[in-house]
Structures are given as C-alpha cells and as structure tokens.
Amino acid sequence: MRDVPARRTDADCTVREDPEAPPVLYGTARVVIASTRAADGTYEDRTGPLLVQWLCGRGLAPVERVVVSDGPEVGRAIADAIAAGTDIVLTSGGTGISPTDTTPEQTLPLIEREMPGILEAVRRLG
Q1: Count of other CB atoms within 10 angstroms of residue 46
Q2: pLDDT at residue 10 above 60?
Q3: Could you read off the pLDDT of 62-103 as tens digits, one per residue?
Q4: 121 contact partners, CB below 8 Å, separation of at least 6
C-alpha cells in the first residue's frame, strides 16, 4: 500500500488524545442560506451564524455566509463559491415543498458525486 498525501480539505483522521474533540478540518468554507424571507429582511437568519461558528470551531477559515432567496439564486451562490475555490460549501434551507424550494435541484448539477449515506446520517442525527 502506498502513502497518499492528504489534501488540505481532508479531515485529520489521526488518533487524538481527546477522543471527544471534534475533528480538525483545513481550508475555506461558505455557508449558503436559502431563504427568501431572510434574504429580504422579513426575519433574521439564525441558522447561518450557528453553522459558521460550528465550521470555525473545526478549524476552517475563513468561513463566509451568504443569504439568498430560494430558487436559482441558490445555484448561483453555490457556483460562485466553487469558482472562488471554496473547499466546503454547506447549504441550509430551500428543501420544503413550495415551488421555490429547489436547493436540491440547484445543487445537483454542480456536484461530482452524490453521497446519499451522508445525507441519511444528517437526517438521522438531526
């Protein structure tokens, strides 16, 4: 078996002295919040700051947050993050049943591979 150097976006999988410590991640991140009402100022986005804090706590820097309306703006925000070389793009919102809740549809053409097991784990763990 040959050694493969870790990419800078890979999680640190070495054994840590504190098994409860969160894994350390390297690179940049962008949080894309899909919410028409938060984007137009009807209410404050409370999820985005929590996600930014969580990602920063794992070593990612910088972590940017954008709030966009549901629909095609989500796809544009994700594409902009990819074009900027962002290592991790995390989306939240836009997964309901209204006609504009299309985050999955906006995301699909931009990914290289679906990883349904990760999505199932997120749903299971909440």
Answers
A1: 9
A2: no
A3: 999 999 999 999 999 999 999 999 999 999 999 899 999 999
A4: none
Q: Could you check whether the bond before residue 49 is cis, i.e. omega within 30 degrees of 0?
A: no
Cβ burial of 119 (10 Å; 0-12, 13-18, 19+) is: exposed
Please choose, from the candidates 24, 4, 2, the residue with its C-alpha nearest in 3D space to the C-alpha of residue 13.
24
Question: What pLDDT sits at residue 109?
Answer: 95
Domains and CATH numbers, the chain: 29-125 (3.40.980.10)
Pick the closest to residue 104 from 113, 112, 93 (CA basis). Answer: 93
For the chain, the distance separating the N- and C-terminal CA atoms, rounded to the nearest angstrom, is 37
pTM of the model: 0.78
